[in-house]
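Researcher: Predict the fold of Putative transcriptional regulator.
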Amino acid sequence: MLALVRRRESYGYELAAALEEAGLGAIKGGTLYPLLLRLERRGLITATWREGTVGPARKYYRITPAGEVALRDAAAEWHAFRHGVDSILGKGR
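Model: Structure tokens for Putative transcriptional regulator follow.
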């Protein structure tokens, strides 16, 4: 999620659509919005309400400097994990 809001400021529906487009399946609001709230409470993202040209106001999410650090740390952990798995599967040769 941090990587998505790092790309550009987005609202919930855009984030859910991006996750689905990436092949992660349909993400329901009951999963998405609690996650966004946890990230916001941890100071990793900020949220701003904006009036839309059509329809209701939307809450846009943006990554914070602390979120950038958390994303870098998570990416490093993921790469180390992936390297280990690739080695076990014989793809690291």
